[in-house]
Amino acid sequence: KGEAKRLLLEEAILASRNTREIYEKAFARWVQYTSGYEARNLKVRGRLVIGLGTESVLETGLTLHHTYGTPILPGTGLKGLASHYCDKVWGAAKEGEEFRREIKFVEEGKNRTRCGKYYETLFGVTEDAGHIVFHDAWILPDSLSGPTRGLVMDVMTPHHGDYYMAQPETAPAPTDFDDPNPVTFLSVAGDFRVVVACDSATDAAGKWAKLAMQLVTEALAHWGVGGKTNSGYGRLDG
To answer: What is the DSSP letter of 71?
Structure first.
């Protein structure tokens, strides 16, 4: 805690930046591998933190590339975000029913449900995994340099710790006299390369990939990804 924790986080930031030389080569190889896919570079608008609640030796967690220790946006998280946005935003729009996760209808006097056909193609159902692949988004090598890019020091200041940590029946009432408790953690700033692909061999594959990219970029711009999105974290745009 305290000074020891600050020094540890500073070492983590330095270690991440020191990987740039080898990371640039890995990133170039990955870009070549995904060159035929739909890709877009998006900039973090402010800060981003993903994996905040994962198990960690510290009070907070952060999702990093398992080999290079650099920030990464997991493809599973991007797919989950896009899926929810598709259902709640595109599916709620006029004539957007087929983008909904669940459509209710009556057949032979019984209430039934089905998945929207566009939603099923994009994200799949229990019997079919869907046809869009959401790749992990890698941070651009240039974003590992500079004091305000890559991994950066951040702080949150929870109040009313006794209220939140105690059992409901013994929790003291939160008041304005409670002491703030600053918690230092790492967040991310910089640019990420977002990649999606369609696994179909049909002529429409490219159109589906472009549609998926439009969906995920809208979700990242309006809803954000990761933790603390209600505080403005996790927004990315072009």
So the answer is: B
